[in-house]
Amino acid sequence: MEKTVKIKVDGLYKTYLDARGRVYDALKKIDLEVYEGELLCLLGPSGCGKTTLLRIMAGFEQPSRGYVAIDGGIVEKPHVKYMILFQNYGLFPWRTVLGNTEYGLEVNGVPARQRKEKAMELVRLVGLEKFAHNHPHQLSGGMQQRTAVARALAVDPEVIFMDEPLGALDAMTRLKMQEEIVRLWQDKRKTIVFVTHDISEAVYLSDRIAIMSLSPGRISKLVDVPLGRPRNRSGADFARVQDFIYAEFEMSIREEIDYYI
Known about the structure:
By secondary structure, this protein is of the alpha/beta class. The protein has helices at 50-57, 97-107, 112-125, 141-154, 171-188, 199-205, 236-260; strands spanning 5-17, 23-35, 39-43, 65-70, 73-74, 82-85, 159-163, 191-196, 208-213, 218-224. The chain contains 7 helices and 10 strands. Strands 6-7-8-3-9-10 form a 6-stranded mixed sheet, with helices on both faces. Strands 2-1-4-5 form a 4-stranded antiparallel sheet, covered by helices on one side.
């Protein structure tokens, strides 16, 4: 079956001025297509421009050259059709789990009873029904992240951008949240672009991995992940794919060093 392109990044550059007023490329000639219903990971070292690229794709920044299009329309600003989740969760501390989940529906003018029913449905979906009336400070990091996911899903976006959303979690909670993200993705089939610098996380989550290189940031390799779901982290196939990605990742860094020597 032919895949439908949901997001197209074409000839994208992002330039900045450094402290001395010199122009430098943060991103250089990014070409990328993300398919509808796909879970794609942007994998790269810190400072390679993953977050900058994600912010441009979500409409929070504009490219210096090139463009991003979603469903054929040029992305010029944030839109309710595509939501972004940050590492810091962004929850309102004065609102409960249910209240945070309701927020987008409230902004969109959904009647109180209808939005409460919809929000509670999503709170159940992320496994927080018992904590619906708790405030963020009463929740663990994983629970806060699940609340942020529920809030994003409430407005029924077509695309969800995730900027290292699990980076602040402890190792065990992070593994559980990876499983949760896959479960929600399989249930809702949203298009997800997920930023990470963790190779194992990328292999576990994604259909494809876009490996990014440093200075300037660019996509050095696009890799299909040939594993079924659910994925066994301790299996030989998982280890082989992880080793392959690691080798590609290491090669892109070596090429970068050789370029500047």
